[in-house]
Here is the input.
Amino acid sequence: MLLQYQSVVLKPRNGSYGRDIVFIKRNGPNAYRIHNEQNAVTMRDTDKLLKWLRRKNRSGGYIVQRRLQLTQIQHKPFDIRIMVQRKKGSSSTWNVTGSYAKVAAQGYLVTNVTSRTIPVLEALRLARIGDRGLLVKAERIARLAAQRLGERYPKLRTVGFDIGIDRKRRIWIIEGNYQPDLRPFRLLRDSSMYRRILWYKNIKAKKDG
Ligand SMILES: Nc1ncnc2c1ncn2[C@@H]1O[C@H](COP(=O)(O)OP(=O)(O)O)[C@@H](O)[C@H]1O
Ligand SMILES: [Mg+2]
Here is the structure.
């Protein structure tokens, strides 16, 4: 993938909470710039890089993704979490029940290590990247993705999508979480989303959906 893209992201398959995510950037024909947590090093040899990676994650291997150029707020990248839920009974439709933006801490490329949580519209405004229209678009993408996943997983009722917006305002799904953390919603000043999420968790759809 590094032959195809300037920059990639490696994520441990055995779950990480952002801690062991590695960003690798091609830096000349046989050199790489590696960024992990707040540290960055250069490696001048492909074999060295592979050895380093194997030592770092012996057990599970990695998922590799193209690195997105996430929009930033004061040089800190951010992405958004969109909660999508459906009621009990798989014929019911998927709805967006909450969202927030995660702003990376100083020096970090991931937004889930000691990040700041703010309302999405505020993040879009601070980044001067868009307004409600962009959020509506991202919500539609999250709903469509959940619908597709729900066809495969009939019992699935909740997906927390991490969604990135790049500098060209393109919208990307970073990942979907089936047991998303609800704490950030509880901590938001406006508790209406948190209450809606809990309500949805417990409600059953009527027979006709
Ligand atoms: N392809 C990518 N390009 C840029 N940043 C990414 C990419 N994938 C992940 N990140 C950053 O790392 C964070 C954590 O990655 P994620 O896939 O959500 O794993 P997890 O939350 O399970 O640790 C994301 O929220 C995002 O800030
Ligand atoms: Mg995530």
